[in-house]
Amino acid sequence: MSMDDKQQPNKNIDENFDEDTTKDKYLTFVIDGEDYGIDICNVIEIITVTAITWVPETPPEIKGIINLRGSIVPVIDVRVRFKKEEKPYDEFTCIIVTEYNEYTVGLIVDTVNEVLLIPEEAISSPPNAKLKYQNKFIKNIGKIGDNVQLLLDVDKFLFS
Amino acid sequence: MADFSRESMLDMFIYEMNQLLEQLEQLIIQGEDGYSMDEINEIFRIMHTIKGSAAMMLYDNVSKTAHSVEDLFFFLREENPSNVDYSKLTDFVLEGMDFIKAELGKIEEGSTPDADPTDIISRIKGFLQQLKVENGKASPEEAAQAAQAASPAVQTASAPSEAKAESSAAQNQASLNNRYIAKIKFEEGCEMENVRAFTLVNNLKDVIYDVVTDPADVVAEASEAIIKKNGFTMTFSSDKSYEEICSLIDTTVYLESAEVQACALNRYSAIIKFEEGCEMENIRAFTVIHNLEDKASNITHIPEDVVSEASTEIIRRDGFKFEFSIGKPYDDVYEMLYQTVFLKELHLEQIKSESESTEAAEVKEAAPAPTPAPAPAPAAAPKAQKEEKPKAAPAKKKPEPKAAPAAAAAKKQPPAQQMISVNIGKLDHLMNLMGELVISEAMTTQNPDLDGLELESFNKSARQLRKIINDVQDTVMSMRMVPLSGTFLKMHRIVRDMCKNLGKNVELVIEGEETEVDKNIIEHISDPLMHIIRNSVDHGIEMPEDRAMLGKDEKGTVTLEAKNSGGEVLIIVKDDGSGIDKEKVMAKAKASGLLKKPEEEYTDKEIYQFIFHAGLSTNDTVTNYSGRGVGMDVVVSNIEAVGGSIIVDSAEGEGTTNILKIPLTLAIVEGMLIKMGGTKYTVPIASIIETFKAKQENVFMDPDGNEMITLRGNVYNVVRLSEFFGTTAEVETIEDGVFIMIENEGQSVCLFVDELIGEQQVVVKSLPKYIKKIKGISGCTLLGNGDISLIIDVVGFFDK
């Protein structure tokens, strides 16, 4: 059983990846100049922004639904979710299609950077001071050299 | 290997069980007035299969319940008793079935089926005993005994069949801590013999220990073939009696034969005669004893002093007699002794117990063997005898030796495979792919790149493609269609139960049950149909004496009819009962404050619609079935959930007719494509009454700012779709937009939209789970160009 947990699908990033190679890997993306990372296990594919159909009575961050080769996928604007100012989508804007607990959701980000290996020892918890402005969507902070990656808590991001 | 995964088997199990139960229910209801032999056989077979499957899945309580019912029908089949209370029998079987159904429900939900079947089993057993007594097949004492046995003791041991119940107590006590050998053969074609064998071992694990199996690794793939070929042999120790072990093993699924042999120190008596002239008989006899000493205990022999010279003569004359106890079955012992050099005659008896040693013992005479080397004839002899052995040696056959093979044969060779069962998920997926295929086809053939080109050959091919895709689409749709017969036939049971409880006499007539409807829809109409039928029987049909007084046939009739009508299916439930009392309904409606206009203005049809309101029941007395006023509103909401509608008509004193209109399928909707604020929406055509353009002067506003429109003298509410969904429209002025009048439950509103695009069939897709349910939107669909269009849920516009 424990094997299954690790064997999260990772189909389109790199065909050569197997379950071991997804360990400690993060897809990094940019929101408002800041680098964020998302566990590669949750990522299905990256697409450019396509036609988004707006759906009524949804929270503002849900921009609508897209047609991803026949399946209907809701998309969330990460900027709106992070309460940042919206900006028009350009040629760098990407949708990261993620899968989490049977939910498939697209995340609209400013742009994606690369897949980074961040070993466990390079990851530290966010500051423990419970300050008001602390971002609840950040699970951990990863360090690669001088760069800092804010690692996204997908569960909280989608469901809180 | 203790817990191998059953998940994949579980689905199949549940499916199979449901099928069997459905089939069973039909048979039972049909046979309530007496079963034909065929029906008894069929019911027996079904129960046998249920028992088997459940035991394989380790659902003991289900298996035991099925077993007890099976016993009941075993008796019916074997004895063909004349004096049977079929009505009571039916009650018992239905009760047993309901128990199994309830347990199945739990399994489906993923919880453990843990209800205790002891009560129902003991009652079924009691009934069986009663049957036996009444038909002179069992003495009253036995009945009393069995009744006792049916009480708590049954809880642990699996229900022993009557044959076993007669077993002598002596043996039960004697055989503590015994070693047994069990040779199991499964029915041919049952498949997965290795798993079945493992299940058996697993089932017994609480009562047996020191288990040695052959093949050793039961679950290994390779074992399947071995078990199939040679059967499955297990040797084990247990403190259970022989009978208990047998009965436990007998519950095994698809068991063809089980041969259990107690290897418990059986006592044998043997007489060996040596060949004449072999000399030194005393020494030879001693050798036999000496060889035995390792394996057997308690050896006594005549003469006592074997080695003495005097014994030679005695042995030569009378043979060498000896007795011993050994934990081996008869055959093994026989073979062992048969190896003795210069053996002329071997006479081996098994002594069962002191009192019945001669009667019960097995006697086997070997043909004289001239040489120690086994000549062909004697070698064959023990084999031949082996086959006719089962009488005395405690070899245990199934209690229903005839039943199992017959049932197996029926199951094994279905008349050439005409049907397969497919997971509905796969069909849904195929349906989705079909939808995409249609869209891609449109995207290809109407590709903008082709504009303005003369493509005669291409167009020809495209038309061909279109035609094939249409055919495929029809076929895919038809695959999801299921006849209504299953749902209809279930209603027999409801009518039967109600008649019994209410003392009414009602016949259910079914017509057009072969009409096919999408699988998803069938699931939704089963409950509403049941409510309507209950209503008809409970409220509609009068008591027999009242009917007689009214000059009607004492037997009431409820007709359940289905027929195709355009893109819809009509399901008509008609009864010849008292009809709906209009005044009563009206009074009730008035009392409940449902009236919205003067009483006189209500048409009959409108009055009848009141019965679908929650909390309104015209039955003054609350019965088990109806009268609480809940039910009919559920009927309406269920029917509407699948896009259907219901109409009631009634003539006082003559009966009531309910007409359910349901769409053929949910997956494809005939829709009107509209545009509003740059987004395309689809409104189901079935809900549209008309579309029209209007002038500003027809639209006016009340003080709260609600817009209304007059059309042909009637006033309707106006709902601007943009306002409803909280977005901005491209068209604001009345003259530029279009009105769509939609209807639900007799109410109408006019939707104001930017533009009509056109009619088209769309494949319904549900919205992603991540998006919560949205009022006014039922799903979405993909358009030819890959765009998404939201499908309007008309009901949402009325639900304030």
Give short descriptive properties of this protein.
heterodimer, A: 160 residues, mainly beta, OB fold (Dihydrolipoamide Acetyltransferase, E2P), 5-stranded mixed beta sheet, 43% strand, disordered N terminus, B: alpha+beta, Four Helix Bundle (Hemerythrin (Met), subunit A), Helix Hairpins, 5 domains, 6-stranded mixed beta sheet, 5-stranded antiparallel beta sheet, 26 helices
Summarize this, please?
The complex is a heterodimer of chains A (160) and B (800). With 160 residues, chain A is mostly beta strands.
The named CATH superfamily of chain A: CheA-289, Domain 4
Q: According to CATH, what is the topology of the largest domain in chain B?
A: Heat Shock Protein 90
| Cα Rg of chain B | 38 Å
Write the element-wise H/E pattern of chain A from the N-terminal end onward.
HEEEEEHEEEEEEH
What oligomeric state is this?
Answer: heterodimer
Instruction: Assess the beta-strand content of chain A as a share of residues.
Output: 35-45%
Counting H and I runs of at least 4 residues, what is the number of helices of chain A? 3
- By CATH's scheme, which homologous superfamily of the largest domain in chain B applies? Histidine kinase-like ATPase, C-terminal domain
CATH fold assignment of chain A? OB fold (Dihydrolipoamide Acetyltransferase, E2P)
Biggest β-sheet: strands ordered side by side in the sheet of chain A: 8-1-2-11-10-9
Supply the helix-strand structural class of chain A. mainly beta
Count of separate DSSP helical elements of chain B: 26
Percent of sequence in beta strands of chain B = 15-25%
The pair of chains with the biggest contact is: A-B, 21 and 27 residues
Biggest β-sheet: strands ordered side by side in the sheet of chain B: 19-23-24-22-21-20
Cα-to-Cα separation, first versus last residue of chain B:
58 Å
